[in-house]
Amino acid sequence: IKMVVAYIRPDKLSDVKQGLAEAGAPSLTVTNVSGRGSQPAKKGQWRGEEYTVDLHQKVKIECVVADIPAQDVVDAIAESARTGEKGDGKVFVLPVESARQIRTGKSGPEAV
Amino acid sequence: IKMVVAYIRPDKLSDVKQGLAEAGAPSLTVTNVSGRGSQPAKKGQWRGEEYTVDLHQKVKIECVVADIPAQDVVDAIAESARTGEKGDGKVFVLPVESARQIRTGKSGPEAV
Amino acid sequence: IKMVVAYIRPDKLSDVKQGLAEAGAPSLTVTNVSGRGSQPAKKGQWRGEEYTVDLHQKVKIECVVADIPAQDVVDAIAESARTGEKGDGKVFVLPVESARQIRTGKSGPEAV
Ligand SMILES: Nc1ncnc2c1ncn2[C@@H]1O[C@H](COP(=O)(O)OP(=O)(O)OP(=O)(O)O)[C@@H](O)[C@H]1O
Ligand SMILES: Nc1ncnc2c1ncn2[C@@H]1O[C@H](COP(=O)(O)OP(=O)(O)OP(=O)(O)O)[C@@H](O)[C@H]1O
Ligand SMILES: Nc1ncnc2c1ncn2[C@@H]1O[C@H](COP(=O)(O)OP(=O)(O)OP(=O)(O)O)[C@@H](O)[C@H]1O
Ligand SMILES: [Mg+2]
Ligand SMILES: [Mg+2]
Ligand SMILES: [Mg+2]
Which residues of A touch B84 (CB under 8 A)? Predict the structure, then answer.
């Protein structure tokens, strides 16, 4: 069992949800986050005041999978989230030791 | 050390906090999230427009434990979050390699 | 590859971002969360009604690193987030099995 964690552009959420469904991994959890990657902070001006934009709005996606290879899920997210511009995001895979579906009490891969 | 991650119904948060305290795992972090499980998206109508509800408000709970078995924490969450209806949520256990308590500087299981 | 997860005081976010940048780990994701540690819930009164404050606003930081030791990142966060008062937070390290940078398609440590 693996947890695929992705940070993507908010306006790519809809495409990613569709990409995941087509890859056979429709279940997911979405969180509003902000973050920065490797670009240095950007300085701007507002009414004569200098300010720094260094955290950008992103969406975090968590998708736990058991039946399909985590790399297929990574591919599906990366393809559907890509624009080719800086800020497209990252996808990470974390190990998961156990799973439980609350309604049924099922454990293991079939609980995912 | 393990991190127990649960996605539950928002209106079950209070019961789950109590269940965790009774299980000897009072520490937790709560995040507002939205998500979908294995049910297909639901279509509705609003003022003649069709819309699709496919993400439901949920609460994510993270509970890192060292002294008590992670499965006891999974049991406590699953029991207190259960209604028996679709949408009750899931609980996953992830491995944690190290812990640090910031105030005391303590590391390892006693930092959890 | 490791994911360093920290729960800190919201008003320490700016110091922690600077601490991370100085430690050579500028990339991070920030989430607004609430939580409780090991202190019992605090009871208060408001207009004659008793209430319990048991969840405090915190900020969660996720910082995935590959080139620098995760413990250096833990040190950087813990030093910059510390006030010495209860509620300073915790830092955990989780294993990460793979990484992908969406824009470039790069995988592995150089994708982080
Ligand atoms: N190492 C990391 N740890 C935690 N979060 C990260 C990390 N790298 C990126 N993120 C998250 O992903 C978001 C998008 O990152 P971004 O795509 O800008 O990465 P990048 O390495 O700068 O790539 P690019 O050069 O294509 O912009 C960030 O705002 C942050 O939320
Ligand atoms: N595999 C998963 N990966 C990530 N998040 C998940 C996953 N499965 C469920 N979730 C989260 O848990 C929430 C509740 O899921 P839900 O209980 O509907 O799962 P289910 O498998 O459809 O079970 P049920 O048939 O009882 O509804 C989802 O809205 C989502 O936030
Ligand atoms: N074991 C844990 N699992 C999940 N989240 C935790 C855990 N411990 C702490 N947290 C998160 O960190 C925040 C701050 O915790 P806190 O610093 O109060 O921990 P503590 O053990 O009570 O230490 P202190 O005695 O210094 O207050 C909590 O509000 C919660 O969000
Ligand atoms: Mg970038
Ligand atoms: Mg469901
Ligand atoms: Mg405390």
Answer: 103
